[in-house]
Automatic annotation (TrEMBL):
Keywords: Membrane, Methyltransferase, S-adenosyl-L-methionine, Transferase, Transmembrane, Transmembrane helix. GO terms for molecular function: O-methyltransferase activity; S-adenosylmethionine-dependent methyltransferase activity. PANTHER family: CAFFEOYL-COA O-METHYLTRANSFERASE 3-RELATED, O-METHYLTRANSFERASE-RELATED. It comes from Cladocopium goreaui. It comes from the Eukaryota. This is O-methyltransferase. Belongs to the class I-like SAM-binding methyltransferase superfamily. Cation-dependent O-methyltransferase family. The chain crosses the membrane at residues 6-28. GO terms for biological process: methylation. SUPFAM superfamilies: S-adenosyl-L-methionine-dependent methyltransferases.
Length: 306
C-alpha cells in the first residue's frame, strides 16, 4: 500500500475510534442521568417483575428472561414468516441435533428488509444449514435473481438432506437458490475468479458460518487485490453471531478459539477504516458492513442512490 494510502487509512481508522469513544462517553452520561432521574416503570423493574418474567426460561443467546421475552415480543409483532419458512423451522427442530444453529425469525426479516431497501439482485450466503435464511431471502427475489449458498455441512451432516428437501419444497424460491457443497474459502475463491472473468458481483452477503475464518471471508469479499471484487461497490455484508453468547464481553473466555476469532473479527472490521460498521443487538449480535469509501463518495455527491 502506498504511504499516502496507508496514512489515509490510519487517519480514517483513528477518527472512527475517537468518534466511537466520544459517543460511548456521551451515551454513558445520558444513561446515568436517566437512571438517576427515572420515574415510573422501566425495563429495570420489568427484569425483576414476576408478572413479566415468572416461568420464562432464558434463551442461551438472549441471556435473561426479560431479553428472551423482548425478543419473542419483537418476533410476534413483526410480519409473520411464510408457511414454507415455518415448516423449515419446525422440521429443523424436530429432526436435527443442533437446531440452535437456526437463525432468528428477526434475522430473516432484517435480511428481507435490507434486500428490498438496497435493491440487491445477486446474494451470497456462507453457511446455509437447512436453508432457512436462504429461502427467506429467495422468497422476495424476482425472476432472474439468485442466492448462491456455500456450505460443506461439516457441523451436522444430517442437515444436508433436510436442506435439499426444503429447497425442493420451496417452489420458485427454491429454484432461485444455487447450493454449492464445498468449503467456504474454496467457494469464495472460485466465485471471485468467475466475477473477474465477467460474472456479476454480489450485492449482499450473509455470513453465518465458522468463526475462525470470518476475517478471511470478508477480505475475499472485499477483494483488494482483484480487478473486480466479489462484493459490489455498494454491496452489504451481514454477519451473524458477533456477540457470540456474550462471551466477547468476558475477558477470560477470549482464550476459547471461537470467541477469540469473533473478538478479532469485531476489532478488525472496526479498526481497518475500510468499512462502515453497524452492530445490532439482535439475538446473538448482527453486524452490517458497507464499504467506507462508497459512503464517502455518496456523501460528497449529496446523494443516497448509486
Amino acid at each position: 500500500m502506498p504511504p499516502s494510502s496507508l496514512m489515509g487509512s490510519l487517519a480514517v481508522a483513528g477518527a472512527a475510534v475517537a468518534t466511537t469513544l466520544s459517543l460511548q462517553w456521551l451515551w454513558a452520561r445520558a444513561t446515568a442521568r436517566v437512571r438517576r432521574g427515572r420515574k415510573g416503570y422501566s425495563s429495570i423493574d420489568a427484569a425483576k417483575d414476576a408478572e413479566v418474567v415468572k416461568g420464562v426460561i432464558p434463551d442461551a443467546y438472549e441471556g435473561t428472561a426479560l431479553a428472551t421475552l423482548r425478543h419473542d415480543y419483537c418476533v410476534s409483532h413483526s410480519s409473520p414468516l411464510s408457511p414454507l419458512l415455518q415448516t423449515v423451522a419446525q422440521e429443523t427442530q424436530r429432526q436435527l441435533r443442533l437446531p440452535q444453529m437456526l437463525s432468528s425469525p428477526l434475522t430473516v426479516q432484517l435480511l428481507q428488509t435490507l434486500i428490498r431497501a438496497s435493491g440487491a439482485r445477486r446474494i451470497l450466503e456462507i453457511g446455509t444449514y437447512t436453508g432457512f435464511t436462504a429461502l427467506g431471502m429467495a422468497e422476495i427475489l424476482k425472476e432472474g435473481m439468485e442466492v448462491v449458498c456455500l456450505d460443506d455441512f461439516s457441523d451436522e451432516a444430517q442437515a444436508e438432506a433436510l436442506c435439499h428437501q426444503m429447497l425442493s419444497a420451496g417452489g420458485a424460491a427454491g429454484a432461485r437458490i444455487q447450493l454449492r457443497r464445498q468449503a467456504a474459502l474454496q467457494g469464495l475463491r472460485e466465485l471471485s475468479e468467475a466475477v473477474e472473468a465477467g460474472e456479476e458481483p454480489f450485492d449482499l452477503c450473509f455470513i453465518d458460518a465458522d468463526k475462525e475464518n470470518q476475517v478471511a471471508y470478508v477480505e475475499e469479499l472485499f477483494g483488494a487485490q482483484r480487478s473486480r471484487p466479489l462484493l459490489a461497490d455498494d454491496g452489504l455484508i451481514v454477519v451473524d453471531n458477533t456477540l457470540w453468547y456474550s462471551r466477547v464481553l468476558r475477558p477470560s473466555h477470549r482464550h476459547d478459539t471461537s470467541t477469540a476469532a469473533v473478538v478479532q473479527f469485531n476489532e478488525h472490521v472496526l479498526q481497518s477504516g475500510r468499512w462502515h460498521v453497524t452492530m445490532l443487538p439482535v439475538r446473538d449480535g448482527i453486524t452490517i458492513l458497507q464499504r467506507a469509501q462508497r459512503l464517502t463518495k455518496m456523501w460528497a455527491q449529496g446523494s443516497h442512490r448509486p
